[in-house]
Amino acid sequence: MAERLAFAARLTSLEAIFVLSGIVLAVFGGFTFADRRNPARIGTGCFWILLGASFAFGSVLPAWANGALVIAMVAIDGFGRVRASAASTADAAPREVRVRPAHRLGRRIFIPVLMIPALTYASSLIPWGKSVDPNRVVFVSLAYASVLSAAAALAISRARPVELIHEGRRLAEAIGAVVILPQLLASLGTLFRVAGVGDVIARIVSAVIPAGNLFAVVGVCCLSIVGFTFIMGNSFAAFPVIMSGVGVPLLILPFGADPALVGALVLTCASCGTLCTPMAANFNMVPPALFEMRDPYGVIKIQAPYAAVMLLVHVALLWALIR
Amino acid sequence: MEYLPLAGVAVVLAGFALRLRVTVVVVAAGLITGLAAGMPVVGSDAAPGILDTLGRAFSSQRLITLFVLALPAIGLSERYGLQDQARHLLANLRAATVGRLLLAYQLLRVFVVALGIRLGSGHVTFSRPLIVPMALGAGGLDDERTPDETERVKAASGASENYGNFFGQNLFFGAAGVVLVVTTLRDAGIAVDPRHVSLWSIPIAVASVLVAAGKYHLLDRWLRRRAARRAAATGDEGAR
User: Fold this and answer.
1) B187 neighbourhood in chain A, CB within 8 Å
2) N or C: less crowded end of chain A, CB within 10 Å?
3) Do A34 and A160 belong to one domain?
4) A129 has pLDDT over 90
């Protein structure tokens, strides 16, 4: 019994789903090797297999070896050898192939896709206890929901199982090397932190801020968290630095502002920076690739004017509510 | 010399501005940042190196990329007509414009995150399979849309996911952002109630939806004008 429980715990660990993802990515790579319609099948295949290795073995390899895997993937992309198959670009799929079965399947085809959020949510309703990391609940559920959803898609479409791999690979190749950007940029943020970039910026900001004038302090505080988030790509990295350097000593203490109010607004103000930066790749750079847009900066361009208005709203609200 | 750590930031900004290959720019910026800070390439127990800091950070961030597991199911569903079905959902509803659809989605997204529900990447699970094709099909104009109209509709669909997610998530008092506010202030010697942080997040959540509604309205108007111009052009040809 104890053995079985331990096995179940291993199967529902983050490690298990990393290995599962690694296998899926490596299988994509293997099929790419054999795909004669991919103009760079060797490079592309290597890229996906290296990414799979980084996923499956990321926790057991020494840190420098993980770093070397990253450098190798970026080198392949740098030489332009990560490409999509001519057979897998969106328009290549003959429209009849997509439309004809659609009449037969009708709206049942929504079931697999809706299963992923539904099952992930359902499992978050189970009381797992305080000792279980909420990240583990979300992501392990997401992984198994994806597997069940794939099974449902097979059952509904009566497709051959190998088609799952072909279709998954089609989407993965449409995203391309951008797939590693979110992890890469988060790593750069870590390097920035280790090298002390945050401290330098905080020093600059506190040197230029005009203490005492509420409107000026609010303005500089909002601008600096937006700028800092733009550089780091992550509001969570910027918030503690700006809050302890500017928010608390220059806004909360001298003006007696409500700390919950200042904290809440400064944090969402940082999101205005997130909306504008390619550094937040999972929000801004992956979607254009995923939606097969022509301009990789298309989402950022449409978000920037919105972010500018929201920044003004933050400044105005903070100033009006503290005054 | 004290500004030397910013060298990597300069590389990032220059690389993005010149539109160099992003992955290469990021790795170059990392190398330069590390060298400027005097880090060795491969570290030891005493001093972390550039290569191992990069590797450790990269593998500790694998959760962001787990969405690849959902790709086979979504891809197969697309092959069997998912996008066409999603397109048809709104094609016959004249009241369903792109802007109204995106506003409805953003409200739904705010509602979902405000309940503390986390579903991984909304761009993968909702936008690509459902919202983008529904937006492209809204108003039944799918086949007439020009590439730049399609491009803008796609971009706005991606943006609506971000707007709802970013400005709605702190409405849940257990959200990671609210926890960050509480712990940061606690470190500064100030005690705050997470529920107050959530309450003070309401004005911005409301403003974010209102500003977005304005943006969507402008998008609808732009699309309507383009469609009207197209109709006028084909009408001229018919008269000729």
Assistant:
1) 240, 244
2) N
3) yes
4) no
Residue A286 is part of which domain span? 196-322
Q: Which residue has the tokens 């107050």?
A: B196
The candidate with the shortest Cα–Cα distance to A276, out of B224, B55, B166, is B166
Both tokens of residue A295?
Answer: 């301009």
For B48-72, write each residue's pLDDT tens digit: 889 999 999 899 889 888 889 999 9
Residue B39 φ then ψ, to 5° = -85, 140
CB atoms A291 and B127 under 8 Å: yes
Region of residue A294 (phi > 0: left; psi between -120 and 50: alpha; otherwise: beta): alpha
Give the three-class secondary structure for B164.
Answer: helix
- The single-letter code of the amino acid at A89 is T
Q: Compute the distance between CA of residue B81 and CA of residue B83 in angstroms, rounded to an integer.
A: 6
Q: Give the ipTM of the model, two decimals please.
A: 0.89
**Residue B17 exposed, middle or buried by CB count within 10 Å (0-12, 13-18, 19+):** exposed
**Do A13 and A139 share a domain, yes or no?**
yes
Q: Do both A130 and A229 map to the same domain?
A: no
Q: How far is the C-alpha of B18 from the C-alpha of B21, rounded, in Å? A: 9
Could you tell me if residue A184 is inside a domain? no
Q: Which of residues 55-94 of A touch B (CB under 8 A)?
A: 55, 58-59, 61-71, 73-74, 77-78, 80, 93
| pLDDT per position as a tens digit, A3-43 | 888 888 888 899 999 999 999 999 999 999 999 999 999 99
Residues A15 and A159 in one domain: yes
Contacts across the A-B interface (CB distance below 8 Å): 420
Do A112 and B200 make contact, defined as CB atoms within 8 angstroms? Answer: no
Chain A residues in contact with B185 (beta carbon < 8 A)? 243, 248, 259, 263
Domain boundary among A131, A150, A177: A177
Residue B172 gets which letter from DSSP? S
User: How far is residue A61 CA from its own chain's centroid?
Assistant: 23
Helix spans in chain B (H):
7-17, 22-36, 50-60, 71-79, 82-91, 98-114, 122, 132-137, 147-168, 176-187, 194-199, 202-239
3-state secondary structure of A280: coil
- Tell whether A222 and A79 lie within a shared domain: no
What does pTM read for this prediction?
0.87
Tell me whether residue A191 is in a domain: no
Residues of chain B neighbouring A196 (CB-CB closer than 8 A)? 5, 37
Instruction: Give residue limits of the domains in chain B.
Output: 4-60, 65-239
Residue type, A180: I
Do the Cβ atoms of A291 and B157 come closer than 8 Å?
yes
For A292, the 3-state DSSP assignment is: coil
Q: Is A149 on the interface with B (CB under 8 A)?
A: yes
Domain count of the fold of chain A:
2
Degrees, nearest 5: CA angle A244-A248-A254:
150
Q: What is the C-alpha separation between A37 and A14, in angstroms, rounded? A: 35
Of the candidates A179, A146, A182, A184, the one whose C-alpha atom is nearest the C-alpha of residue A289 is A179
Query: What's the CA gap between A270 and A232, in Å, rounded?
Result: 11
